[in-house]
Amino acid sequence: MATIQKKKTNGIYYWYIVESVRVNGKPRPKMLAYLGRPADLLKKLQSKTPLPTKSYEYGTIAVVDNFINKIGIPEIINVAVFGEKQSVVRNKLDLGQTIALIAQQRAVHPASKRAFHRWAQKTFLPMIYKFEPEKIDSQHFWDMMDLIPEDSIPNIEKEITLKVAKLFNIKPDLILYDYTNFFTFIDTMNSACDLPQRGKNKQKRNDLRQFSLALLVTRNSKIPLFSEVYKGNKSDAVEFSDSIGQIRTRLEELSFSIEGITLVFDKGSNSKDNFERLKDLNYVASLSVHHNNKLKEIPFSEFKETITKELKDGTRKTIKCSRLNDAEIWGRKRTAVMYFSEALYEGQIRGMEKDLEKAVEDLKSLKASGMKGKFLRKRKNYNWTKELFEREAEKTIDKQFVRDVIDIKVEKTGWRFILEYEINAQKKNILKDTILGKRILITSRQDWNNEEIILAYQGQKDVEFAFRQIKNPFHSCVRPQYHWTDQKIKVHVFCSVLAFTICALIEKIAKEKGFPYTINDILDRLSSVRKVKYIVPKTENKFDIEYGMEEIEDKETKKLFEVLMK
Asked: What pTM does this model have?
């Protein structure tokens, strides 16, 4: 309930609607609306028309919260951590609700937890969860996240995935597995954490420590079934070896038929031992073109079979391919399918030409240095030989494809080194005709035709989309990430994957109802749906606070909101 109060300024009374709130435990007046002079106040009281005072972002908040409640995420988290005991409550929020709020922020507006209250004040979240935004600071999140043991995260993920699979009828035939990494600004000398390590960063920040994330998602709907955070210097193949058993266990926990599911993964996971560990898991995997010389040397002119792939515009694209049912790979006969990827070919051509241009410039500089004897003068105590100079030249061309097409020759005359080089056109043409653009797939699905095998592997784009999304700075993003202990990093990433799961479910339901939008489009549309705080006159000096929806002008957005709120 709010009341009206007057304030005298320059001899004139002005009226305000004021609500009493508690700040740090003490009552304080909070102005809700300015009513003006007595005459203005009288007019408003006589009309008894609700007075709008403030609007809040509601559409995205309400839809995400609707899915959180459908799944029962707060309850699942509280039970997993505390069992039958009552959850810890801080600032009117228990642990499950706090994690749900983190997922909300990650899904809708990724930002630091210190900035949470500034964002929350602009949304309808405080009214939904009954908390005071000013009290929900970074310390609140730090203390609550600290309650989640590291070893309970897989169990929480399992229970949420079980509920999601049951509620939303998730029955995959194809599951996609891949990895990515995230750089951090954790100090090199910080010994409080073990996960962040230096490694090959996919965003080219090799100068920083990083942690890695493995993710298993379903085809098309992109629903995460399994995730794991691991050390930034751990190789993909080793991580895959450790994850195979966990993936099999997760599929069994979800009561999925292992025989009816095919696992798709990229060549970074390959090793002889890993394929042996797969056992009863069917797979489609990519193989390095350099792994098998017999497959490598088969020219595209021998690709006699074709398949067609439907494009987004409804047209169909022809793909040339070839199949060997008895390819010798890691000491066993395996089914291999090769096909020509135009996108891969164009990318490799661009990369090769750029690297060739750089290599020629470096060789030109090296040649001039050798002719002037600069090496000898630069290192007076170092005895340069022809072999050492050749090694320097080989380092210059030591890049993929470049070493295959540039011929170099070194001669020594007195104290000079004479370097000759050329781009071998014949070798370059052989490279274009046999290797560039070639994809090699191996599979245990011997009963599948070429089209099924190739399209299964191309489904890998869905897990790549998941990684792009959790690196998207606008929705479901892992960064910013300011945690620096292993436990906090794992909880933080869990919240981000949870946010992506909710977003993937929202997109799935929207598409099933006929809305052809990506999750980013959906959330952007829903952000225009707002709720308004009204002050409604009741008596001469008392007012009620009520909330109502703003009119949604766009009919498509209104229909989308109504569908997702069911």
From this structure: 0.83
